[in-house]
Amino acid sequence: MRTTRDSTRKSVMNFILKTRAKHIRDSERSRQAVLKESQSGSVRSTDDVNLFVEQMVFLLPPFVMFPSFFPSHLCFICNHRLGLLLVCVVCVPLFVFPVFASVPSDGFLDFLCFGLSASLFGSLLIWILPPNQFDYQELLHNSSFCLVPRGRRLGSFRFLEALQAACIPVILSNGWELPFSEVIDWRKAAIIGDERLLLQVPSITRSVGRDRILALRQQTQFLWDAYFSSVAKIVLTTLEIIQDRVDSHVSRSRFLWNSLPGGLYAIPQYSTDPAQFPFYYAILGKSPSQQFTAVIHTVTPLQSQISPVVKLIIAVAKSKFCAQIVVLWNCDKPLPPRNKWPSTSVPLTVIEGQTKTMSSRFFPHDVILSDAVLSLDEDSVLSTNEVDFAFIVWQSFPERIVGYPARSHYWDSSRSRWGYTSKWTNDYSMVLTGAAFYHRYYHYLFTHHVPASLLTMVDRMANCEDILMNFLVSAVTKQPPIKVTQKKQYKETMMTQGSKASRWADPDHFAQRQTCMNAFSHWLGFMPLVHSQMRLDPVLFRDQVSILRKKYRDIERL
Fold first, then answer.
1. How far apart are CA 453 and CA 448, in angstroms?
2. How far apart are CA 167 and CA 39, in angstroms?
3. Dist CA 553 CA 161 (whole Å)
4. What whole-number distance in Å separates Cα of residue 325 and Cα of residue 333?
5. Please, which pLDDT band fits residue 494 given cuts at 50, 70 and 90?
6. Positive or negative, the Cα torsion across 431, 437, 438, 443?
7. Which of 45, 73, 179, 207 is deepest in the core (most CB within 10 A)?
8. Which spans are transmembrane here (predicted)?
9. What's the CA gap between 156 and 179, in Å, rounded?
10. Is residue 101 helix, strand or coil?
11. 292-536, superfamily in CATH?
12. Helix axes 441-449, 465-477, angle to 10 degrees
């Protein structure tokens, strides 16, 4: 047995030496040409090779000879200055020599050896493929795992490439302090290995279940979008981390940094308790607010007890979920006395705005105590049943805007700009805040996160504040709003055409909203609005059954 093994080893070594010598002679000219290109700076350095696993398919390449010698291996694709490389990490027991292979006619082999134990030898088999046969980005985005070795420095730009492509980074760079590791838990998005134990990578990746692979890939997308997708976000994240160090008593927890929508949208000055934000109710098992505060924006004087705002206050006050009603008096006329307002079973508070601007309707007033806010225009037409049903729906979607009037956006290819439409179609992307529920945290985010230039634009036009709120909420949640029931008329027709509230009849109103759409998308750098075709109706809504079997009976009569 020993004689047979020695004979086989001698034959194999002779074959390797002959193959290696022929390879060196044939490829010397190509190597010199590549070296000149590298020195001129026209191509990447070998250290910049991006290694990533193509679906982690552990198959021995067909050009490797004597496959019985190789019980374990790892194949992956990498990007090289000469084209795409097919790389195989091969484990050869009992033999201490580089792996042998047949040389393809359209490429050449290169051998890189790793220092392992005497009884176990590992090496890299690299086959340079023609660059026109494979697309680097396609392979990258179709990969489940990406090998991220050290680059010129300790870190590697390939780490960000993997995050962007939703490819799980397999980090092989001992001693590398990962970006923002002070607040980001990278073990939820990457597999951190030891570069000294390279041959354990296949078994580690094979042991990862499908559910965890999905969770890891989702986390890579969240971290990329939240903190690394632009230079502005990287700089802002750095500044926010420094601020948390300085103001440690109001700093964000790691839970906020590692959960949607991320630390940049969880302002610690509002609260450091995750349970106070609408995004974490489901994760923490917290129930949404059981009551709401109605905030009515008023811009016309109170003329009589049959004014639309009076009827609206009476209808909202009858809701069993209403905790209080707040009237924002942004009218130029003096505030009417208390006896002019209707008597209600819930507290009625009238706040006179100091600036009386459109953006002030979303100011985080201290009198708003409940998490749920019902935002209303003074000429909105809603019944008590409609209010109750919309609130029940909001409790299932506390992080979104839930309401009645829906609008949509579209891309105008002829003008290369975004458009705004109020046409009734099969989908929508906005729910106007003239009759909608949302969490009160968005008041704080609207006031302290939106740039002052956009707020000034809204105040100057006296328009678009509802669109801006939809942009903000969609940018945070990455989800569309929720429309409830099929209701076309939600505005009071009794409002006089000369009143300030009749801005919808202004011919410039629609053009201004088109301008706002493009200004807001330019601020964000992308279009956050998401189309939806879902509409939620009460059970048995408009079904041919007895009205006594329906809970919200008045909705169908309107």
1. 12
2. 32
3. 55
4. 21
5. very low
6. positive
7. 73
8. 49-70, 82-101, 108-129
9. 11
10. strand
11. Spore Coat Polysaccharide Biosynthesis Protein SpsA; Chain A (3.90.550.10)
12. 100
In one-letter notation, the amino acid at residue 152 is R
Q: Which helix (H) or strand (E) holds 24?
A: helix 2-40
List strands edge to edge, sheet with 402-403. Answer: 348-352, 322-329, 292-298, 372-377, 435-439, 402-403, 482-484, 535-536
Of 288, 162, 293, 224, nearest to 478 (Cα)?
Answer: 224
* Dist. CA 164–CA 161, nearest whole Å: 5
Tokens for 253, please give them: 């927890």
Rounded to whole angstroms, the Cα distance separating 264 from 524 reads 14
- Per-residue 3-state assignment (H helix, E strand, C coil) for 174-228: CCCCCCCCCCCCHHHCCEECCHHHHHHHHHHHHCCCHHHHHHHHHHHHHHHHHHH
Per-residue pLDDT band at 18 (split at 50, 70, 90): low
Q: Which of 438, 406, 435 is nearest to 422 (CA)?
A: 406
Number of CB atoms found within 10 A of residue 104's CB: 14
| Residue 477 pLDDT | 96
263 has a pLDDT exceeding 90: yes
Any idea what DSSP says for residue 500?
A: T
CA distances from 286 to 91, 398, 473 (A): 52, 11, 21
**What are the two backbone dihedrals, phi and then psi, of residue 108, each rounded to the nearest 5 degrees?**
-145, 165
Q: How far apart are CA 210 and CA 175, in angstroms?
A: 29
524 vs 98: which has the higher pLDDT: 524
Q: How far apart are CA 106 and CA 85, in angstroms?
A: 12
Q: Enter the tokens of residue 44.
A: 């990447």
Q: Answer yes or no: are the C-beta atoms of 135 and 129 closer than 8 Å.
A: no
Tokens of 247: 């103001």
Number of residues that make up the chain: 558
> Is 110 part of the annotated catalytic residue set?
no
Phi, psi of 209 (to 5 degrees): -75, 165
Token pair of 550 as six digits: 């329906």
Q: Which of 6, 377, 466, 554 is catalytic?
A: 466
Query: Is omega for the bond preceding 301 within 30 degrees of 0, making it cis?
Result: no
For 512-557, the DSSP string reads HHHHHHHHHHHHHTS-----B--EE--TTTT-SS-GGG-SS-GGGG
- Collapsed DSSP state (helix, strand, coil) of residue 444: helix
